[in-house]
TrEMBL record, chains A, B:
Pfam families: TetR_C_11, TetR_N. SUPFAM superfamilies: Homeodomain-like, Tetracyclin repressor-like, C-terminal domain. It comes from Streptomyces mexicanus. PANTHER family: HTH-TYPE TRANSCRIPTIONAL REGULATOR RUTR, TETR-FAMILY TRANSCRIPTIONAL REGULATOR. The keyword Transcription applies. Residues 21-82 form the HTH tetR-type domain. Keywords: DNA-binding, Transcription, Transcription regulation. Gene3D superfamilies: Homeodomain-like, Tetracycline Repressor, domain 2. This is TetR/AcrR family transcriptional regulator. GO terms for molecular function: DNA-binding transcription factor activity; transcription cis-regulatory region binding. Residues 45-64 bind DNA. The keyword Transcription regulation applies.
Length: 208, 208
């Protein structure tokens, strides 16, 4: 199972022939262009997007049910790609997961466009819901699956609810990348968080 | 040191005679009333607040520099009070800190008014900044101080940056209470997070 699978999950438009992909790309890039020009999301009508991309409105509606679904694809196109999980051990899979969150945080700080896209998305409950259903929920299901496998393999304690364990592992990186725009996101942070959380925060000398 | 100290930190209005406190309360409650009636933050002018509270605009401006500062006091009045830290050991102080975050999360789910207040606050960068400076930053400084004391006392590992340790401890509760409105916030969660994070996520049998 790879995170990339989640990209073709519910809500993703059906991909057709190569020519169709080029049209989709033109439409997604059209939305990007408008956002880069500072057009607020509320003024991004399908009509305006169609005009910018040089296609008819029907061409857009054949691919996306509406602005929400289209916008989620725009966000995904601007985000770093989902990682291939090494699948060798839970620790390495967790590092790969956190590394994607870290890179997403780095990109959203350095890319004005992605930064704005996130901000606008959060101000629209419908689009936030669509993003949640097609991107965040599948990613979360994958995280929980990795942890359950870790519990089966004896890599993770089994006396705590897997949801709580997930928040303990992913929480620190989410807090840094999403809630604390001033927090550092240095290379090696993913490894540091995963290893520290797995080992515990008590001084090593007092471990029994 | 108690979290309550941070309430009189920079930005808090100077408290005068008892009569003055009653006026302040009337103003804060006036804002609450308007918010409960569904008036959006953007339409909450000082003039309208003054009219609702039955005071003059000057009375408000004598106490708050503007809408931002006033609104932060409204949020603080609606939030659960800051906890008294037991100060006996790092673990108990951390549980008290997380417990306040948990209760804040519970209240913001059950209280429509506080829920709306947070949502509106986040949509206003100026008010969010003011809240950050007067509520979140002092709380964070206190958290870091507790952890540094824990490192000095041998209760916390010293080989990891204290900022990262703080995110590892507070992150899971923040993620639940702020980012995941569907997540459960049961009693005992604070203890469970703190103890699990301190002990580590590896199975107990494999601890060396």
């Amino acid at each position: 199972m790879s995170l990339a699978d989640s990209r073709t999950a519910p809500g993703a438009p059906l991909r057709g022939r190569p020519r169709s992909e080029a049209v989709e790309r033109a439409i997604v890039e059209g939305v990007m262009k408008l956002l880069e020009e500072g057009v607020p999301l509320a003024e991004l009508s399908i009509e305006r997007i169609a005009r910018t991309a040089g296609v008819g409105k029907a061409t857009i509606y054949r691919r996306w049910s509406g602005k929400e679904e289209l916008f989620v694809d725009v966000v995904r196109a601007a985000e770093p790609p989902d990682p291939e999980l090494p699948g060798t051990c839970m620790r390495d899979d967790l590092v790969a997961l956190l590394e994607q969150l870290r890179q997403r945080g780095v990109v959203s700080r350095t890319s004005m466009i992605l930064h704005n896209v996130y901000a606008q998305m959060k101000s629209s409950p419908k689009i936030w819901c669509a993003y949640h259903a097609t991107v965040i929920e599948p990613r979360r299901r994958l995280q929980l699956e990795i942890l359950r496998r870790g519990q089966r393999n004896g890599e993770l304690r089994t006396d705590v609810d897997v949801d709580v364990l997930n928040d303990i592992l992913v929480g620190p990186m989410l807090v840094r990348s999403v809630m604390r725009p001033d927090a550092e996101l240095p290379e090696g942070l993913s490894e540091q968080i995963v290893d520290t959380v797995l080992e515990g925060l008590r001084p090593v000398s007092s471990a029994s």
